[in-house]
Amino acid sequence: MTTPTILSSPLSRWMLLSLLFAAPLALASEGHDLTFQGDASFGGPHGGQAIQVAVVDAESGEVLAEESGTVSADGDPAFSFDFPGALQDGKGHEVHYWIDSNFGGGSEGSCDPMENDHQWSVSLEPASDAVTHVESHDPGAQSEVCATFE
């Protein structure tokens, strides 16, 4: 009496090989982690204020991930957001973020014009590994990003 094995039929062998080759492909399609931080220079002007951050596909404009929090008045980093698997191989990404500062007007909880709520767009190079990106506070480098958060 012989005991049948799972590999005895051609279909079973094909299924096993398919599983072996599919596993690395599934892992390869997962993205790379992004840690996005603001250094202590954000604390003085924005300490205690709300911040929203989004990872955006640079080509399509699609929002891939979004987080929110509060800027620390005395921490370094003043803010830090983790986006596991958000960066895809060979693709350009941007990080859009705004701080609900309401300087001279604006509405709490909504992204207002740049003179009221500070906003930035940061371009990231295509990644082949995890990325930690640290920004310094630069009001002169602002760009309109409110549409990202509507």
Tally of helical runs: 2
| Major sheet details | 4 strands, antiparallel
User: Poorly predicted ranges (pLDDT <50, ≥5 residues)?
Assistant: 11-29
Helix content: 10-25%
What portion of the residues fall into strands of 2 or more residues?
25-35%
Q: What is the straight-line distance between the termini? A: 70 Å
Number of strands: 7
Task: State mean pLDDT (0 to 100 scale).
Answer: 86
* Secondary-structure element string: HEHEEEEEE
Which strand order spans the largest sheet, edge to edge or round the barrel? 3-2-5-6
| Overall form | globular
Structural class label: alpha+beta
Computed over alpha carbons, the radius of gyration is 22 Å
Structure commentary:
- The protein has 150 residues and is α+β, with helices and mostly antiparallel strands.
- 25% of the residues are buried.
- Strand 2 (50-57) and strand 3 form a beta hairpin.
- It is globular, with a radius of gyration of 22 Å.
- The chain has helices at 10-29, 43-46, and strands at residues 32-38, 50-57, 63-70, 79-87, 93-99, 118-124, 131-135.
- The protein starts with 9 loop residues before the first helix and ends in a 15-residue tail after the last strand.
- The strands form 2 sheets. It has a 4-stranded antiparallel beta sheet, with no helix packed on it.
- It has 2 helices and 7 strands; from the N terminus they run H-E-H-E-E-E-E-E-E.
